[in-house]
Structure formats: structure tokens, C-alpha cells
Amino acid sequence: MALSRVTPATLDVLEALMGPGEELYGLKIARNAGRKTGSVYPILARLEEAGWVESCWEREERGERGPRRRFYRLNPDGLAAARALLTERRGAVRQRTGRRAPVRSPIPVAELRLSWAAR
Amino acid sequence: MINGMLGFLVAAVLIPLLVNEAGDLVPSLARCLLRWGARHIGQADQAARYEEEWLADLDRVPGKLTKLLHACGVVARSVPRLRAQFHPEGRRARLFGVLAGRVMDRTAKRLAAAPGIGATLQHVAELLVPQFADHCFIDLVQGGVLIRSVARHTGDWTPPAGTWARAGEQIRYPQGHFCQQAMECLETVLVADFAKEDRPAPSAPSAATSQRVGLTSIIAAPLYTRGVLLGVISVARSGLTNRAEPHYSPADRDLFRTVASWAGTAIDNANPPEASPLTALATCVSYRRPVPARAAPPASSRPFPQPHPSPQSPSSGTSPYPVLAAAP
């Protein structure tokens, strides 16, 4: 089924869902997608409503008590549809692992040194 | 001396105690906030689900103050959207919020900037499908007959050949058809539940396709500008998409009436002056020039609107339009 609304955040969440790791829950998906958790839950709900995503509760381990996580994964139809959508909108599927890219200085260090030396 | 002792007690004992206490209270405050937010989603089963899911995710958020900020973010962003998604009334409100605000604004801007009649019609259809409808049809009166100018459907779906009229084909609506009714009465017609109303179809294959695609609700509005009927625009929802609200409401009809009015004006503006006698007259009166002779109908897809005989009094019995009179 087609998605009623596709935003850049939706595409980021789809990329995060296509990434490695089987146990993807809301917080982890939000981190991998680089989006606020609050905006990710409604997107996951929409994807689930559209039949692209399936979710299930975390299995209760013995001795562990407390709230269970909800795991999300793309079903085969959703995976194919997501791949087609991402290719159409972004040209390719980017891998999102949650690791942030190293922060780089907008100006190369060598240029900075030169500019200071010129003063 | 006593003041100094009191100051020491406050600074060294009370304030650290309070800070420590507050630090311990913050995570439970975050949990309370998430429980409160989940309860406000609207549905009991969804509330229970999201409460557990959010609390489990909260346990994995490091820090104490960070937990509270995380909970605030979830409540502020997720709760209104999920509420609108699961609650039908809320969804309608959201639809109106979006359509009446951003999309309507965009519609007006794009229609104003549309360079030609073809682009104008395409813009109208693109703005309506799939946000507001699964199908959009624009039929224009050209040379006394009704020609389907735009047929747009959600996704990649296309009707089988020989069923629903395609762009460029002539269409004849029978008496009692919602499009015919919209043009005859110059009123926006709402078919809230298509399954419950017995409406005639232009042809048997057309009716069969409507059944197959699962039409749920339809709105048809006349394209009527400055006393001239330009054609008819209709939108429909069907089983092609899974909408929370598959039926149009009277509020949707009012909204669509506005869109049709703008579309009619945009189509009239996109027409060359010689194509519309009233526009030509208005232009010549303004510039004190002689009225030009009406150009012969070109082979292109320009619509040639027919003046409406009596816009204020819908006819009863025979239709004033040749195209309608010719309908079976």
C-alpha cells in the first residue's frame, strides 16, 4: 500500500530500518536516522499502518521485569517498496549505522595556520 | 553568628540534599509524563502499547535530566500526531489544518504561476492526489462537448482500457450522475457513501471498474467562472489507499468548492482572451478597443467555454447542455 505522506524524515527512518541489526526499537531507530525520537514514533505508526513495517514485543527474559521494548522491521513487501522509494527520491540507499561522522573543521587546519601566520 | 551558621547549613547541607532529591525525582517525573502522554493518544489499546514502549526506551536513555528532556520531546511531538492518526476527528482536523493552511496556500500560488492551461490542470490534479483523493478528473467543455482533460490516479494505478474515460476522450454523463448534477445545478455535489447511493454510470464497464476499485466517496464541483461553465472537476476516494477516513464529509465538500473555484479562475485566466468572449469584452472595454472576432477553434486542447443560459435557475427536465442532452 502506498504511503500517504513521504517526508525527508520518513526517508531517514526507512534508511535506518534497512540498516544492520535485527533488534531495532524506537530509540535506536531515531538515533540511527539522526532524528528526534518524538518525530520517529508517528512515522513508524504510519509505516505500520501502510503495511510496510511489522512490530513485535521484546521477549521477556527470566528474572527480568519491567517494560518491554517494541522491535520494528520492514517486511518483504515493505523492503522492496522502501528500496524503490529511496532509489527514486535519493538515487540510492544510504547505510545508517548510528555512528556519527567525525566532526571536521570547515576550514582545513593548514589554511588556518597560514592565515594566523599572515597576521 | 547564628546567621552564619544558618547560611552554612543551607549551603552545605540543604541545597545538596535538595539537588540530590530532585535528581532522583526527575526520572520518575519523566515516566509520569510519558504515561500521561500515552493516555492522551485516545485509544486504550494504543495507549497501553505506547506507554510500555516509551517507558522501555526511556530506560535506555542515559542521564537523569536527559530522560526528562526525552520525555518532553516525545510528549510534545508524538502525542499530537499519534492522536490525529488514531482519532478520526483529530485526523479530520489535521487534514483541514494541512489542507486549509499549507496546501491551499500552495494551490493558490501554483495556480497563479501556472503558465498554460495544460500545466494549470496538471497542477490542480497533482495537488489533490494523493493527499485529498485517490482519483481526480477534470472535464472541460470544448466545442460543445465534454472532453476529459485530466485523469490522475494514486500510485501507478490506471483503469483498464474502455472503462473510465482517459485524457483526450469525450465523456457523456447520464441524468442523475453526480458530475451532470454538479454542472446542471452549479452546485458542489457530495456522494458521502458511494455504496449506499444508486448512481447511474456513463457505461457498464465504467460501473464495473468503480466496483472493482472500491469507490467509497466522491465530490464533484462545476468549473464556473464569470457566468461561464468551463467544465466539471471531480475527486474520489477508493480502496487503493488505506485511509483512516475513507468518506468525504460536508467540510471536505466546502473545501473542495473553494479549490474548484480557484481552478475555474485559473483556467479562465490561462485561456487566451479571444477564447473567452467575456474576457475579451472586459479587456476591450478597459482599453477602449474594438472587440476582436472570435478565433476559430484550434486543434489543440484549449477549452472553449459555452455561456451558461441561466446560471441562477437550474433547469428542470431537459438539460441546457448539448453534451448532457446527448447522454443516454
Give short descriptive properties of this protein.
heterodimer, A: 119 residues, mainly alpha, two-stranded antiparallel sheet, 8% strand, B: alpha+beta, six-stranded antiparallel sheet, 10 helices, 6 strands, 51% helix, disordered C terminus
* Helix and strand run of chain B: HHHHHEEHEHEEHHEH
Helix content of chain A: 40-55%
> What is the overall shape of chain A?
globular
Helix content of chain B: 40-55%
Structural class of chain B: alpha+beta
Say how many strands of chain B there are: 6
H and E string of chain A: HHHEEHH
Annotation field: number of helices of chain A:
5
Give the termini distance of chain B in whole angstroms. Answer: 106 Å
Low-confidence stretches of chain A: 100-116
Distance between the termini of chain A: 63 Å
Nearest-integer average pLDDT of chain B: 77
Radius of gyration over C-alpha positions of chain A, nearest whole angstrom: 19 Å
Mean pLDDT of chain A: 77
Q: What is the topology, as strand order, of the major beta sheet of chain A?
A: 1-2
Parts with pLDDT < 50 across at least 5 consecutive residues of chain B: 283-287, 297-304, 310-328
Shape of chain B: elongated
Structural class of chain A: mainly alpha
Give an account of the 3D structure.
The complex is a heterodimer of chains A (119) and B (328). With 119 residues, chain A is mainly alpha-helical. Chain A has helices spanning 8-17, 26-33, 37-49, 76-90, 109-118, and strands spanning 53-57, 70-74. In chain A, helix 1 (8-17) packs across helix 2 (26-33) and helix 2 (26-33) packs across helix 3. Chain A starts with 7 loop residues before the first helix and ends with a helix. With 328 residues, chain B is of the alpha+beta class. Chain B has helices at 2-39, 44-59, 65-86, 88-113, 117-128, 178-185, 204-213, 250-270, 277-287, 322-325; strands spanning 135-142, 145-153, 189-191, 217-225, 228-237, 306-307. In chain B, strand 4 (217-225) and strand 5 (228-237) form a beta hairpin. Chain B is elongated. The chains are: A mainly alpha (119), B alpha+beta (328). The A-B interface holds A 1-2, 4-5, 25-27, 36-39, 41-42, 45-46, 49-51, 58, 66-70 and B 49-57, 59-61, 70, 73-78, 81-82, 85-86, 130-131, 154-155, 240-243.
